[in-house]
Amino acid sequence: MTDVLTPAGVREALAKHGLRPRKALGQNFLVSARAARMMIESLEPGADDFILEIGPGLGALTAGLAAAAGAVAAVEIDQSLIPVLSETVSGYNNVKIIRGDALRLDITELLGSRPAYKAAGSLPYYITGPILERLLNGAARPSLAVFLVQKEAAERFAARPGDPGYGVMSLLVQMNAGIEIAAHITPDAFYPQPGV
Fold first, then answer.
1. Are 39 and 148 in contact (CB under 8 A)?
2. What does the pLDDT look like over 48-78, one tens digit per residue?
3. Where does residue 161 rank: exposed (0-12), middle (13-18), buried (19+ CB within 10 A)?
4. Dihedrals φ, ψ of 133, to 5°?
5. Fewer C-beta within 10 Å: the chain N or C terminus?
């Protein structure tokens, strides 16, 4: 199995399947084991936890979540990535891969009889706001969520009245959840490296 937490491993996995990162989908794959570990630790997954991972990509975060949580539902919109993701998590029987759009996902149906869930993912800029709106305004809200987002988006969500960037999304997030910027991740933690 290819290590998808290194740039070389990502290049190898993509080449093996004849794939390239799709700019239109904001694909910059996480290649930092430190960042993945930090996200997993912040999510505090336990054996009884059900984790909804949005945009698992090649599975860099998914495998670590599966090792620590009771169950993981990984929702990936890009059908072409499913074979790589399947290989990455092939050693785990507690991962359900869902090919679909997280914005159209019926979370209540996915949860079934489970009383709660946690959410995680590395979100492209263009979908960050809509995902947070969906999770915070939906019938089934996560008990805890850890997302890797563009720095400007995180700062906007955490902005206080009077701060530059304070607006509707700041209000939505803060009315429905506590927010903490846990860490700053540098561009070299991704392949390809984002321009921001």
1. yes
2. 999 999 999 999 999 999 999 999 999 999 9
3. exposed
4. -60, -45
5. C
Is-contact 47 146, C-beta < 8 A? no
Sign, Cα dihedral of 85, 113, 105, 103: negative
The pTM for the full model equals 0.94
Backbone angles phi, psi at 144, to 5 degrees: -155, 140
Nearest residue to 75 (alpha-carbon basis) of 61, 92, 64, 91: 61
3-class SS at 72?
A: strand
Amino acid present at 9: G
Q: Measure the CA–CA gap between 108 and 154, rounded to whole angstroms.
A: 27
